[in-house]
Amino acid sequence: MVMFDIRFGFDEETKQFIAEVPSLNLSDYGDTLEEAYKNLLEALQLYMEEKYNLKSKKEYGYETV
Question: How far is Cα 30 from Cα 12, in angstroms, rounded to an integer?
């Protein structure tokens, strides 16, 4: 199992929540904290699939939490 530190913030200028994985220089945003987290998980899934040439979660028959 791989674990990552996830940090959250809020951009006052854009009024968006930000979720990031600093060790991967990966981030995403959303109107709510939950949306930012969900978007980051999707970005992380795509990152891992691309970096490690993994099959997509649908090909494995499971969904991320």
Answer: 13
Model confidence, pTM: 0.76
Contact 40, 26 (CB under 8 A): yes
pLDDT per residue over 33-52, tens digit each?
A: 999 999 999 999 999 888 87
Which residues face 16 on adjacent strands?
A: 11
DSSP string, the chain: ------EEEEETTTTEEEEEEGGGTEEEEESSHHHHHHHHHHHHHHHHHHHHTPPPHHHHT----
Q: What's the rounded Cα separation, in Å, for the pair 30 and 62?
A: 24
